[in-house]
Design brief:
This protein has 362 residues and is of the alpha/beta class. Helices cover 37% and strands 15% of the residues. It has twelve helices and 13 strands. The strands form three sheets. A seven-stranded mixed beta sheet has the order 2-8-7-6-5-3-4, with helices on both faces. A four-stranded antiparallel beta sheet has the order 9-10-13-12. It has a two-stranded parallel sheet with strand order 1-11. Helix 7 links the parallel strand 5 and strand 6. Helix 3 packs parallel to helix 9 and helix 10 runs parallel beside helix 12. The N and C termini lie far apart (64 Å).
Length: 362
């Protein structure tokens, strides 16, 4: 073989990597494209024993997250972000070339990327009106499916999947497949969590993260919540030291009583900002529709999304283009930043709307 690339697996050679916000780049000063908390939360590094390997599952982190989630420590696994949890489940439960995973676009892009990377077939069932599950279509595609990923609240649409639909999905997959509820944004609508369902459904798995409401996207720390039998299997395939000592140190601080209380304060403030942003977007003439949100971002459809995206980009305001997602033509996703950042977005949009109005009058 003449090229190193020829040595790679065929599916990897053809793979398009997940287009993360940082990978897409930009040179703005208002970053509203990655659903991050807009301000840094200060922490002090307390653990200095960096000459020693860390625990595979740091005790303080596991115990504090279990207490926060209302579960036992045996039901919690910590990993390098929820993204690693997505992949660990495939590695533990899916035989490449034999088993499949299923999810319902438009939704989070890492489900397909992880499956392609591992050589696992993935199947899609587009959502119905209101971005709800098409249960009859899912039922027809469940042969050989081991994992069904359901993001709720869903990224990028911002809606909750109806709990009765998830319950029906759990009933139809019982004894056949795991249902993975991706709750990365659950802190913005905490009463919607499915953690209380774990006793009833041994095949339910829940993904969580510290990246959003806890303002720790740079920490890369996520959690898989499940019954002990599932966690035991995931522990067989996880890396020996998934969390570095500084990550475990800061995660434990964030999950302290004071850390959780601070997170809840931040969520309250952000939700107030989100509601004002939604209200202000309704008053912009270039906005066709603003979709309801249970998250820290807002999806909106624009009359000319390409113009809006580029105009704001040129002003240093970086949004997330969703045009390539099925059913989201003309849509941009706006992370909720500070009140001042959201005001800058509205000001820029109003100027665009004014220009359109002037052209119409001419």
């Amino acid at each position: 073989m003449s090229k190193i690339e020829d040595l790679a697996r065929a599916n990897v050679r053809q793979l398009t990597p997940y287009q993360s916000a940082r990978r897409l780049g930009g040179s703005g000063d208002v970053w509203l494209n990655a659903n991050e908390y807009p301000l840094a939360v200060p922490f002090d590094l307390r653990q200095q024993t960096l000459n020693r390997y860390p625990e595979c599952q740091p005790k303080a982190v596991i115990e504090r997250y279990a207490a926060y989630a209302g579960l036992s420590p045996e039901q919690v696994l910590v990993s390098r972000g929820a993204d690693e949890g997505i992949e660990l489940l495939m590695r533990a439960f899916c035989e490449p070339g034999k088993d499949a995973v299923l999810f319902c676009p438009p939704t989070y892009g890492m489900y397909s990327v992880s499956a392609e990377t591992l050589g696992v077939e993935y199947r899609t069932v587009p959502v119905q009106e209101g971005w709800q599950l098409n249960l009859s279509a899912i039922a027809e595609k469940l042969d050989d499916v081991k994992l069904v990923y359901v993001c709720s609240p869903n990224n990028p649409t911002g809606n909750l999947v109806k709990p009765e639909a998830i319950r029906q999905l759990l009933e139809m997959t019982r004894g056949k497949a795991l249902v993975i509820a991706d709750e990365a944004y659950i802190e913005f609508c905490p009463t919607a969590t499915l953690t209380g369902w774990l006793k009833e459904y041994p095949h339910l798995v829940i993904l969580r993260t510290l990246s959003k409401a806890f303002a720790l996207a740079g920490l890369r720390c996520g959690f898989t919540l499940a019954n002990a039998e599932v966690i035991a299997l995931l522990l067989k395939v996880i890396a020996p030291y998934p969390l570095s000592t500084p990550v475990a140190d800061i995660a434990a601080q964030a999950l302290s009583e004071q850390g959780v209380a601070l997170m809840k304060e931040h969520v309250d403030e952000l939700l107030a900002t989100r509601d004002k942003l939604i209200s202000d977007l309704h008053d912009c003439r270039c906005v066709e529709k603003v979709f309801p949100s249970e998250t820290n971002y807002v999806l909106a459809r624009f009359t000319d999304s390409a113009l809006v995206f580029k105009t704001l980009w040129d002003q240093g305001i970086i949004l997330r283009d969703q045009n390539k997602q099925p059913g989201l033509a003309g849509c941009l996703r706006i992370s909720v930043g500070t009140a001042e950042e959201c005001d800058r977005v509205i000001s820029a949009l109003q100027k665009l709307s004014g220009a359109s109005a002037s052209m119409e009058q001419a």
